[in-house]
Amino acid sequence: MNILGPLKFHPLFKDKIWGGDKIKTILRHDYSPLPSCGELWAISGIPGNESVVSEGPLEGNNINELLEIYMEELAGEKIYDVFQNEFPLLIKFIDANDWLSIQVHPDDELAEARGLESGKTEMWYIIQAEKDSKIIKGFAKNTSRGEYQKRLSEKSLSEIMNFVPVKEGDAFYIDAGKVHALGPGILLTEIQQSSDTTYRIYDWDRVDEKGNGRDLHIEDAIEAIDFKEEKNNYINYHLHNNQSMPMVDEKYFTTQILQIDAPIEKNYDELDSFVIYIVINGSFILKSDNGNMDLGIGDVVLLPAITEKVELHPLPQAKLLEVFIKM
Known about the structure:
about 35% strand; 6-stranded antiparallel beta sheet
């Protein structure tokens, strides 16, 4: 048995003005200390927010420490060559009980010019959505910088944004530069580049208990924005029981969806990457050379790159996202 087996981490809970209670009630993280938990960071290598192993022989080590020790055995050879001792993805759950700010993230080129680690491209999978829930994804029409600035000053920006209705199972790819926002009533998981850089453009004129609005980043944002009309709202994918089905296959990450109702074996001996399982429905037993691990909705586990095969035994069914990086 190799000491470097499947890894679970302590969650990092984030208090947000727009947060709710679904991370406690639906995702079963009922030990969250926050009354309005907006985000749970499940796997993070961001300095100051590194995920710490929660159980097993490596308990207490953070993910970047493990990268320093195990290098390509944890990350994969090519991935480690590029990212070294900082984990390249950030995995979150988000509970939007109110509108998030309308915001944008820089791409890699702009981030590098500004001395940031990386840009931020991400994807969302909707775990649960209340009736009439919506997101904003890009502009409803091609927009000039001048019109954008005019709308922003008049507080009518939302009138030119692309509103998209959402339901459970919908998925979205949000390129860096795409203006976006989550609406109320949505619980999702987010897969993204390892970056916490967000430029808030408009925050719906919200104020805190002292009457102060949140900081906006109008000047920083304008160079990051893609002003073109948004034409591709949803990720198109299909489900096929007991078979990994493609969702996203991009340079930053590959995501597949796997719905199981019978025991299956997954073989990763030719994949030069870690694999992350994000459980989005049901529960199953993960069997590996390191023993068994019970996993259910809201759980996230990291399979190191040296993992050759695992077995998944549903109880009696489960649905999960399977995330890795191709290089």
